Structure formats: C-alpha cells, structure tokens
C-alpha cells in the first residue's frame, strides 16, 4: 500500500496539488465563508472544529435566512466538494515525499499518509450532512444535527492528527539533517588530522 504514495510523491505532483488545494481553500476562507459569517453573524459549521450544539445549528440556519442558506448550498458547498479530494491527495503526497528522506519504503510510517484521505472522506460525509440540514430547514431533526456534528468533530480530529504527524516528521528531518552535518564536520576534522 505504501507504493501508492511513494510512486506518486514527486516534487511536481506535490507542488501542483498543494497549490490547487491552497487556491480553493483561499477562495473559501476569503470569499464564501466571510460572506456567510457576515450574513449570519455566526461561524458556519466547517469553522467549528470542536463542534456545535443542536441549538447552535438551528440558530445558524435561522440566522442565515433564505439568502444565506441558498448561498451556503450553491456557493460554499460546491467549493467544499472540490476541497476534500484536493486535501486528501496533496497532503498525503506531501507527507510521503518527506518520509522518503526520513525512512525506508517499507516503513509503517507511510500508514500516516492515510490520515488526509480519511479526513477527506469525513469532510464529504460532513458536507452531505450540511446539505441535508440546509435543504430540510425548518424541519431539521436533532438526530441529523448530532450526526453532522460528530462528523465535523471526527474530521477535525483526523486533520489535527495529520498536522501533528507532519510536524513530527519535519522535526525528524531536521534532526537527521543536523546529525548528518555534525558527522560531516567530524569526518572533515579527522581527514585534516590524518593526512
């Protein structure tokens, strides 16, 4: 299974997918999400990684109004259906690319490359839940809100685990580089001492 990531983790693929991911994320973060936040005066579901209560969800749906719910459904959600696949691909390839310099191809560390994939899947499930909430308003069931909320929390947890892993791999690479530099210095000094 590691080969899926290793084979595709080239500089070009990592760079292209990362740029595309950040481009879509920037549109959401700077255009669609602020519009919805301004309209409702509340954070939308995606921007609440720790989750939300049933009452919060109902208040948000009400505060958005018909215009806001339509904007959420036809502007934010389409972008948020593109983003998870880009996130899954770009961040799994980024981690695999870095792991190539840290460990061997059979390493179990490559299993962490699945974290962004799982986060992406959870994001899609969350999106379907949000679509259901928007379309069923005002007849929104508490169960639908609770299930969508659990998916939001699970997605956020998986995303956090990924970034902790990415940071740890970055630290590992830095330590490896420092040790290699130190060894080069020692070897250089030994060469000078033993001409």
UniProtKB/TrEMBL annotation:
The keyword Transmembrane applies. The chain crosses the membrane at residues 14-33, 81-102, 109-125, 160-179. Keywords: Membrane, Transmembrane, Transmembrane helix. This is Uncharacterized protein. It comes from Aureibacter tunicatorum. The lineage of its organism: Bacteria, Pseudomonadati, Bacteroidota, Cytophagia, Cytophagales.
């Amino acid at each position: 299974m590691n080969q899926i990531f290793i084979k595709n983790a080239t500089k070009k693929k990592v760079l292209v997918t990362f740029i595309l991911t950040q481009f879509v994320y920037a549109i959401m973060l700077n255009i669609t999400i602020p519009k919805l936040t301004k309209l409702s005066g509340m954070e939308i579901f995606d921007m609440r990684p720790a989750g939300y209560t049933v009452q919060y969800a109902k208040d948000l749906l009400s505060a958005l109004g018909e215009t806001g719910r339509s904007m959420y459904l036809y502007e934010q959600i389409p972008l948020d259906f593109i983003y998870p696949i880009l996130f899954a691909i770009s961040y799994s390839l980024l981690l695999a690319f870095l792991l190539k310099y840290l460990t061997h191809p059979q390493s179990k560390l490559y299993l962490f490359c699945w974290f962004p994939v799982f986060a992406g899947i959870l994001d899609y499930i969350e999106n379907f839940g949000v679509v259901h909430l928007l379309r069923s308003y005002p007849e929104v069931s508490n169960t639908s809100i609770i299930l969508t909320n659990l998916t939001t929390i699970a997605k956020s947890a998986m995303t956090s685990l990924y970034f902790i892993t990415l940071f740890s791999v970055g630290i590992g690479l830095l330590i490896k580089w420092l040790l290699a530099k130190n060894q080069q210095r020692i070897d250089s000094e030994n060469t000078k001492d033993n001409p």
